[in-house]
Design goal:
Length: about 625
């Protein structure tokens, strides 16, 4: 989705802005632009296409301003084009704006502005913003230093929808005004300069000290200071947060693609996520969770709510909670949950999983539970992200920045963290025998080494990818936890290879989908549950009989069968098997995409963080 960068300081802004946009490329976009101020004049350069395209535009090297804003646009209102790219200016060229989000009432605002003599150059919703600012600036009676901020505030008061906005003005070349609602924005503080971004990685090379802007909060950013204002423009102080992400972690580190690097980072990500939260023979600790035993005893239902891969991680968490804590769990898609009328009361616990912490549907689903007095826990990878600021409690995966659009290390870290949370609850509740818990803990601690082993043997998967990359359809089958992995494996494949794929609970196949199986169709089976080996083999046998080509991922010793390929993975506790069985499927999607010559890290139509509904 759209990305925002901003800079104010003593250095030339253009290279900093371009580098920031390059760091945000992973979010997915189709046009890019920057604006700087020089000699009290705003200069804008923008075009459709990649940031490299922008960098090569005539005159861009001559932008010498030390203040600037920049944007990558993911088209919503209006096709990707130079005219629709941000920044947008008002008719008098006094204000330039970049905007993430959607202005829902822009038709109405456009009409209002047109009636007042304004004209429009683009089809975007964003272009109303600089013109509204200009309108209020002209009609504002104030004649003081705050007139710019007041004009932005008056314009924002008229907006409906979601936004993170940066504004510069040729009349105020010493400041950038920003505001947000339901779309992230961070301000990075450094010595004698300040940075702005929609995502931390864009400005991570320059600072580790960040202010996270809240909804309806304004900031006026100068070279040496930042002032914060609430929705009524009352000034307040704001605490700074130190984010200890390594700037190099946001680079490719010698790997061909971010996705491959992130797949190989999984042993470290899991180790970091486990961290010091538990040791064998001791109870698990979650210092940030202040939930009494009495509260836990009264929970009668848990909802796990998330989108995409994060929801698939939630599916793996369900049986862990149910087995260890004896609490029924429902896993829900956030975009559905938010519009249903879920049965929520004060004895319902709602857990939200989001790598980015910025997914619009997940945030809305969280607000719904809060309004119904349920306690909420956020599981996120990004400290200070919107979801963690909304939730009653937040716990973090420590996967480091995930740049590739297709989520890999975030998924395995989420599964580990959800499992640890269930163990923590079970220990408080005393509803599960100690042996089971200790066995699970031992297995969790062994996971990083087992993932390392898996990653040392990628040749078989590469070979299989070469055989099947021209296929049009693929099927993923599994039972229980293996079905949850089938869903995630199928999602990975679709996202980055554009091959149509479906995941089915293996027993469900003969209730319809088996009609699609014909000679040469690829079927991938996951078999890790010792109690269901025979059943799963029978289901695969049914597709082999109908001519399917099969790959099986297993940690069981299978009888002599007719599978075309078998990938053996290390054994672990059955509740943890998804963390190992997903690795070959991530690699399969990756190598198929590479064989097809596709852009693995930035698949078409997708965005890393989905901040609109
Ligand atoms: C798939 C993928 C998406 C995200 C989903 C939720 O590889 O990355 O399905 O999992 O958009 O994103 P977060 O976790 O940031 O809420």
């Amino acid at each position: 989705m759209c990305g925002i960068v901003g800079y104010i300081g003593e250095k030339k802004a253009q290279p900093i802005l371009i580098n920031g946009l390059l760091a945000l490329e992973y979010r997915g976009y189709d046009s890019a632009g920057i604006a700087t101020i020089e000699d009290n004049k705003i200069q804008v350069k923008k075009d459709k296409g990649r940031v490299n395209n922008l960098y090569n535009l005539e005159g861009i090297q001559d932008l010498n301003g030390t203040i600037g804003i920049a944007h990558t646009r993911w088209a919503t209102h209006g096709k990707p084009s130079m005219e629709n790219a941000h920044p947008h200016m008002d008719n008098s060229n006094t204000f330039a704006v970049v905007h993430n989000g959607i202005i829902e009432n822009y038709h109405e605002l456009r009409d209002f502005l047109m009636q007042n003599g304004y004209t429009f150059l683009s089809e975007t919703d964003t272009e109303v913003i600089p013109n509204l600012i200009h309108y209020h600036f002209e009609h504002n009676v104030l004649e003081n230093n705050d007139k710019f901020l007041y004009a932005v505030k008056s314009a924002v008061n008229q907006l409906k929808g979601s936004y993170a906005i940066e504004v510069i003005s040729s009349l105020y070349p010493d400041r950038i005004v920003v505001v947000r609602k339901d779309s992230p924005l961070v301000i990075g503080k450094s010595n004698g300069e300040n940075y702005i971004a929609s995502d931390i990685p864009a400005i991570l090379p320059y600072t580790k000290d960040f202010y996270f802007l809240d909804d309806n909060e304004f900031a006026v950013i100068y070279q040496n200071k930042t002032e914060f204002y609430d929705a009524s423009l009352v000034k307040h102080n704001k605490a700074i947060k130190n984010i200890d992400w390594d700037a190099n972690a946001a680079g490719k580190d010698g790997f061909e693609d971010y996705m491959l690097k992130e797949i190989f980072e999984q042993p470290t990500a899991i180790r970091e996520t486990v961290g010091s939260r538990f040791h064998l023979g001791e109870k698990c600790t979650f210092e940030d969770l202040n939930l009494s035993k009495e509260y836990l005893q009264n929970i009668h239902r848990i909802y796990i709510v998330a989108c995409g891969t994060a929801m698939n991680a939630g599916l793996v968490g369900k049986p862990v909670f149910e087995k260890l804590c004896k609490i029924p769990v429902e896993v829900n898609i956030a975009s559905e949950f938010r519009y249903q009328d879920p049965l929520i009361d004060e004895n319902t616990l709602c857990i939200y999983i989001s790598q980015s912490g910025e997914t619009a549907d997940t945030i809305a689903a969280l607000k719904l539970a809060k309004a119904k007095n349920a306690k909420t826990i956020a599981i996120s990878n990004v400290i200070g992200s919107s979801i963690t600021r909304e939730a009653d409690y937040s716990i973090y995966t420590h996967a480091g920045p995930e740049i590739a659009v297709a989520s890999t290390k975030a998924y395995t870290s989420q599964v580990v963290l959800v499992t640890m949370l269930a163990i923590y609850f079970a220990e408080q509740l005393d509803r599960c025998d100690t042996n089971t818990i200790e066995e699970l803990k031992e297995n969790i601690l062994d996971l990083p080494t087992k993932v390392e082993t898996l990653l040392q043997n990628v040749n078989e998967i590469k070979r299989f990818a070469k055989k099947v990359y021209t296929q049009k359809d693929m099927f993923f089958l599994g039972r229980g936890n293996d079905y949850s992995v089938a869903l995630e494996g199928s999602l990975k494949l679709k996202e980055i290879s554009y091959i149509h794929s479906e995941a089915y609970a293996a027993g469900e196949l003969k209730h319809g989908p088996i009609a699609l199986i014909e000679n040469g169709v690829t079927v991938i089976g996951i078999i890790t549950n010792p109690d269901l080996v025979e059943k799963s083999i029978s289901n695969l046998q049914e597709v082999i009989t109908r001519g399917a080509r099969t790959l099986v991922i297993t940690n069981q010793s299978l009888p002599n069968t007719h599978f075309d390929f078998v990938i053996n993975i290390p054994e672990t506790h059955p509740l943890l098997s998804p963390i190992l069985s997903i690795i070959p499927l991530q690699l399969l999607a990756y190598y198929i995409s590479k064989n097809k010559g596709l852009d693995v890290d930035k698949p078409r139509n997708l965005a890393k963080s989905v901040t609109v509904e």
